[in-house]
Structures are given as C-alpha cells and as structure tokens.
Amino acid sequence: MDRFQLGIEIALSVLLLVTIFYSLYLGRALSVLRRDRGQLDALIASLQSSSAQAQSGIDHLRQTTELVGRALGKTVESGKSLKRDLAMLCERSETLAQQLESLLPAGRVATAGMKASPRVEERPEEAPFRSALRLKPDEVRTMKASGSKSAAERELLRALRQKQG
C-alpha cells in the first residue's frame, strides 16, 4: 500500500496547492470589493447631501416665488387702478376737448368782440386757451410744445392746429 498511499498523498498535496492559490485569489477579490464598498458608501453619502441641498434650494425657491407672486399681484392691482384712472381722465379730456371745439367758433367771435369792447375779466385757468384762440393759423402751426405745458394743453394745441389748418 505504499504506492497507493503515496498516490493519495500526492493527489491531496495537489488539491491543497490548488486550494491555497484559489484562496489567495478570493482574498484579493474580497479586498477589491471592500475598497469599492468604501467608495460606494462615500458616493451614497455625497448623494444624500446633494439631495438635502436640492430640497433646501427648492424650499427657498418656493418661498421666493410666493414673495414675487405677491409683489406682482400688488403691481397688477395698482396697474389696473391706474388704467381705470387713465380711462376716466381720457373720457373727461375728450369731453372737454369736444366742448372746446364747440366753443372755438364762438371764441373767435368773442375774441374779435373783445378787441372792440372793454376787457372782460378772465379766469387764470382759461388764459392759455384764450391766447391760443388769438393766434393766427401760422403762429399755431409753428408754436412748439414747451416742457412746462401739460399733455392736455399740448393735445389741445394740436387739435386747434388741425382745426385751423
């Protein structure tokens, strides 16, 4: 049995060497997995912190949006109020312009009569309009709107120029 024992021992030795080399290979593979697991844990921690920052950014953006929305709402409401006021002023100015246009021929007659008759007391707010009625058509055309005149006065002068020209 010596030969048989020797054969079994050689076979076991070979199997033992194969097992040693295989265990070394598995040890290296496990160390690579452990190292990669550390990187994976670091990646997960980084992802969690990025997620927390994104959530806080979203909350901040939501608060900012609400503030801007409120401010925009106030601006829109004041714009609507201004629009109503401007519409009312436009209607009133159109009514006044129509009244002035209807008085224009009468104003010319009154102006001609004023030169011959004694002076009638003028109201200060009518002075710019009376002076515009006394102008000759050429003077009205060349008259420039100064910075001190309101938009209504400039519009009135433009209407007078169109009516006379």
Automatic annotation (TrEMBL):
User: By what name is this protein known?
Assistant: DUF6468 domain-containing protein
Q: Which Pfam families match?
A: DUF6468 (PF20072)
Enumerate the spans annotated as DUF6468 domain: 33-107
Q: Keyword set for this entry? A: Membrane, Transmembrane, Transmembrane helix
Q: Does the keyword Cytoplasm apply?
A: no
Tell me where the transmembrane regions lie: 6-27
This protein's record includes keyword Membrane: yes
Its source organism is Gluconobacter oxydans NBRC 3293
**InterPro entries, alphabetically?**
DUF6468
Name the segments for region: Disordered: 113-165
Amino acid composition bias (Basic and acidic residues), ranges on this chain: 118-128
- Coiled-coil region list: none
